[in-house]
Amino acid sequence: MKMETTERQKEILNFLIRDYLIDQEPVASKKIVQNYQCPYSPATVRLEMAELEKNGFLYQPHCSAGRIPTDRGYRYYVDNLVRDNSDFKKRRINRAEKEIINLLKTVSDNSSELFLRRLLLSISYLSRSLSLFFWDDGEEKRFNYSGLDVLLSVAEKQELYEIQRIFRWLSKAEVNPDKFWQEVICCSDQDQENGKNSLRIYIGEENPIEEIKNWTLMILDYPFSDHQLWSLGIIGPKEMDYPKVIELMKTIQNTATQV
């Protein structure tokens, strides 16, 4: 998303979202100055936050001196701040990620239920999200998921009916994998624009699935051949650790490319 902004506004937005993702509490200008040794006064930060709110990137909850990011704010953070941060590319791959990588190297030869459960559970616990897997070999479409308990444990601020909506959608998609195909894979303008084997990120209202418009969805598509395609995805809170999860998905993407 294009945004006419100053470097100062970009810096403050970055600080604010990073801080909000830690404890999901509204962030005030004084907290930004204190936590990030910001070279600006609280008054200056407060003015810039008001401008960011005016442009739709932040909003101020009732009875709060702080602000929190909107869907548009998260989108700008992901597109312009997280993906451009080279620091995350230098981090070491941890033990859990190595297990996922080793599992992925056998995905084309081993698609048993036990294998999928192990793969999806590993991804769920590492990303702190619900994991999804779609497989199409030209003759049969399959849909699996794992980590609903993980999602319940991290989604403290989500209403119960939101979790129920996700579960109902998952149940339908499991019985009818074409539902997932039609709603996520085939009907994605972003997929057509970026091409396959790309990471797609939908935040809040951007989601193609009505039941998860208060969540973040990440989807990675990879064609093994002209007749085989798998899609790996996660559903998590909008307050997820975007740098960590995006880097995880990129690691999976790079591994799949080499398989």
CATH topology title of the largest domain:
Beta-Lactamase
Structural class: alpha+beta
Instruction: Give the number of DSSP strands.
Output: 7
Number of domains: 2
Report the total helices: 11
The helix-strand sequence is HHHEEHHHEEHHHHEEEH
* Main pleated sheet: 5 strands, antiparallel
Fraction of residues in helix: 40-55%
CATH architecture of the largest domain: 2-Layer Sandwich
Tell me the radius of gyration.
19 Å
Give the uncertain stretches in residue-range form.
none
Share in β-strands: 15-25%
Structural account:
The chain is an alpha+beta fold and 259 residues long. The chain folds into 2 domains: 7-84, Orthogonal Bundle (Arc Repressor Mutant, subunit A); 92-258, Beta-Lactamase. 51% of the residues lie in helices and 15% in strands. The protein has 11 helices and 7 strands. It has helices at 7-23, 29-36, 42-54, 71-82, 95-104, 113-127, 148-154, 160-175, 177-186, 189-194, 242-258, and strands at residues 58-59, 68-69, 130-136, 141-146, 199-203, 215-223, 229-237. The strands form 2 sheets. Strands 4-3-7-6-5 form a 5-stranded antiparallel β-sheet, with helices on both faces. The longest helix is centred in the first third of the chain and has 17 residues, at 7-23. The protein is elongated, with a radius of gyration of 19 Å.
